[in-house]
């Protein structure tokens, strides 16, 4: 598989990557200065190649670089965060 190039499609509010003629994405919304990670979609053809993890990492690094707190609804990103506690400081605390 070729190296991944992830880009931010601000119009669609998605981080996207194209590989092997397919597009994988992580949908987000901007809400009151917070980035809300909604849903990760990786086509079956691309499954198991770390693309979902690459999208999650990109989104979290984007949030850090832009000083955005993060709220996560996406189950895939929630699972990613359990394996990567170095991003815990980005999470919006509601308590």
Main attributes of the structure:
single chain, alpha+beta, 5-stranded mixed beta sheet
Could you walk me through the main structural features you see in this protein, from its secondary elements to its overall organization?
- The chain is an alpha+beta fold and 95 residues long.
- The protein contains two helices and five strands; from the N terminus they run ββββαβα.
- The protein has helices spanning 51-65, 75-83; strands spanning 6-9, 14-19, 22-31, 34-41, 70-72.
- It has a five-stranded mixed beta sheet, with helices on one face.
- Strand 4, helix 1 (51-65) and strand 5 form a beta-alpha-beta unit.
- The longest helix is centred in the middle third of the chain and has 15 residues, at 51-65.
- It is globular, with a radius of gyration of 13 Å.
Order of helices and strands: EEEEHEH
Q: Tally the beta strands.
A: 5
The proportion of residues forming helix, as a percent range, comes to: 25-40%
* Weakly predicted, low-confidence segments: none
State the helix count: 2
Radius of gyration, taken over Cα atoms and rounded to an integer in Å: 13 Å
User: Looking across the biggest beta sheet, what order are the strands in?
Assistant: 1-2-3-4-5
Average pLDDT, rounded to a whole number, is 94
Oligomeric form: single chain
Q: Tell me the distance between the termini.
A: 43 Å
SS strand fraction: 25-35%
Secondary-structure blueprint:
Elements: E1 6-9, E2 14-19, E3 22-31, E4 34-41, H1 51-65, E5 70-72, H2 75-83
Parallel strand pairs: 4-5
Antiparallel strand pairs: 1-2, 2-3, 3-4
